[in-house]
Design goal:
358 residues, Isopropylmalate Dehydrogenase, 2 domains, twelve-stranded mixed beta sheet, globular
Length: 358
């Protein structure tokens, strides 16, 4: 394949959910793929079934054996799973779990080799995908294991109005407090700050930090994590040049629209950040894995077994995942170019943060 176009690898996820429906709905408009080459890692049998079900007669697949054979003007598909696979719409099956892992493994191999440029993952079932080779609570941890180091990744949820990252990801709620350490928060703030610069072209990111306890601990009345862990960690981050503010009580922070004053928010645990995010941006939100050398995005919804096969699933979030992958790829290239030969700093610059947010 000889082209300067961006090649996006797309995993098919759980075949019994809404993955194929949103993929095909997104790619059915030929204008969507004018700027990139889609390569679906999946099954021509399953894709054909959903194409027929959706009555997309004009949508055709270019069946290939490897991403290097991709046609730049077609929707390409690599068969990764057995053609004998059984579709059971709306059901969690071991077969669906195996096929979602086979798709993911083949795509990540190609991502590592550089034959695809970015990865967009369709929703998986975190239970049926578990196996001897997949013992992770989600995509983020799997990709961190493949491409990074421990705690080197950061789960971010992105929309037009809000960016939320989580200090602790897919862990039980009773483990959150013990998992939040000064080192963890400093590391996550550094990853977030770096991503905002490189992936979103924000020169001086402003990051809001949420407290762990109700009312952010209320000066120690409702918990000490803010005073003992979060505030000292923020001071260390500030010494590294990171502009972070808080810690803010989560309820009032989102309820008063204060989030609009910041470039991103660091929540302490999964639901603290994702509940307000999905309340505001469920249809257009994107899950983005920051901190890794590779680019991966995903729609911010799950397999949605309850509406699978009913033709009512919205492709909006999947479309945004495709668009964000393109944007981040371009932004990283731009950042690398402008950072290649930086001008020397001749004088110390005063921190103007106090003039930005009162």
């Amino acid at each position: 394949m000889e082209s300067d176009k961006l090649v996006i690898g797309i995993t098919h996820g759980d075949i019994n959910g809404i993955g194929y429906e949103v993929i095909l709905k997104a790619l059915n408009d030929p204008r969507v793929s004018e700027e990139f080459v889609p390569v679906i890692y999946g099954s021509s049998k399953v894709a054909g079934y959903y194409k027929k079900s959706l009555d997309f007669q004009s949508l055709n697949f270019n069946i290939i054996n490897s991403a290097e054979q991709a046609n730049t003007k077609r929707i390409n598909l690599i068969n990764c799973v057995s053609e004998e696979i059984k579709i059971e719409i709306g059901q969690s099956t071991a077969e669906a779990g195996r096929s979602s892992l086979e798709s993911l493994e083949r795509a990540t191999e190609d991502l590592k080799k550089g034959v695809i440029h970015v990865l967009v993952t369709s929703p998986i079932n975190k239970n049926n995908i578990q196996s001897d080779t997949f013992r992770f609570p989600g995509h983020t941890e799997y990709l961190e294991n493949k491409f990074g180091e421990e705690s080197s990744s950061l789960m971010m949820l992105i929309s037009d109005c809000l960016r939320v990252a989580v200090a602790t990801g897919h862990i039980p709620i009773n483990q959150v407090s013990a998992s939040i350490t000064q080192d963890l928060i400093v590391k996550k703030l550094a990853i977030l700050n770096d991503s905002l610069k490189k992936d979103f072209t924000i020169v001086r990111p402003r990051i809001a930090v949420l407290g762990l306890n109700p009312h952010a601990g209320d000066h120690g009345v409702i918990g000490h994590e803010e005073q003992d862990v979060i505030v000292p960690a923020m001071k260390k981050a500030e010494e590294q040049g990171i502009m972070c503010f808080g810690p803010y009580p989560a309820d009032g922070f989102f309820g008063s629209d204060k989030y609009r004053k910041f470039d991103a928010v660091l929540a302490m645990y999964h639901d603290q950040g994702l509940i307000p995010f999905k309340s505001m941006a469920m249809d257009n939100g994107v899950n983005f894995t920051a901190g890794l050398p590779i680019i991966r995005t995903s729609p911010d919804h799950g397999t949605a077994y309850d509406i699978a096969g009913q033709h009512v699933a919205s492709e909006a979030s999947f479309l945004q995942a495709l668009y964000l992958a393109c944007d981040v790829y371009k932004n990283r290239k731009f950042y690398a170019e402008i950072s290649a030969n930086p001008l020397p700093i001749t004088e110390n610059r005063k921190d103007s943060r106090k003039n930005i947010i009162e």
